[in-house]
Amino acid sequence: MRRRTKWYATALGLTTAGTLVLSTGGASGHGYTDLPISRQKLCQNGTVTNCGDIQWEPQSVEGPKGFPAGGPADGQICNGGVSRFSQLSAPRTPSGAAWPATRVTGGQSYTFRWQFTAMHATTDFKYYVTKAGWNQNHNLARSDLNLTPFLTVPYNGQRPPSTLSHSGTLPSGLSGRHVIVAVWTIADTTNAFYACSDVTF
Fold it and tell me: What is the pLDDT of residue 118?
């Protein structure tokens, strides 16, 4: 286990193996979105501060798969149900400011990008977005989302490269602030990885 942890630390550019605490211990693949930039990446790159453990582990938001029928509980979707990453699910940053948002245009093509620190056999990638009139003042719940993904990218058990991009059409008819929930479903474990990105249509 020490050798495996050291490998992860090296992959992340950390100077000591002891700096990294693995959130699950079971999966060998981890990843997050940086287009549109996710909350965990904003914490990792220092744009948002005082985020806690997630600043060291943006790739580790791993929870049960099966969303939306299963998966993390309402109020914990953005942190994948991992309590030590709970800051990600709060409606505002730890400083009380709004989460920085990426400007997008409904009805147009957008290229989504994932970064992986290790690869894992993949079922698919799915993207969900909040509904018009959603409640921005509480932790994200299923009732805030259109539970039909606006983009599904099958991956048929393949392992992704270290960086993976794919394009899809953003929903039309939305305006103002919204949240996109990206879900990377793993083929050979019971888990998926979650990433929430704040956007402005």
Answer: 77
pTM of the model: 0.85
Residue type, 49: T
Residue ranges covered by each domain of the chain:
29-200
Strand order in the sheet with 30-35: 30-35, 109-118, 163-169
pLDDT on residue 15: 32
Domain spanning 29-200: CATH superfamily: chitin-binding protein cbp21 (2.70.50.50)
Whether the CB-CB separation of 8 and 119 falls below 8 Å is answered with: no
Compute CA distances 83 → 112, 142, 145, 154, 187, whole Å.
27, 18, 22, 29, 24
Contact residues for 4 (Cβ-Cβ < 8 A; gap 6+): none
Count of residues making up the chain: 201
In the structure, what pLDDT confidence band is assigned to residue 23 with cuts at 50, 70 and 90?
Answer: very low
Residue 106 pLDDT: 97
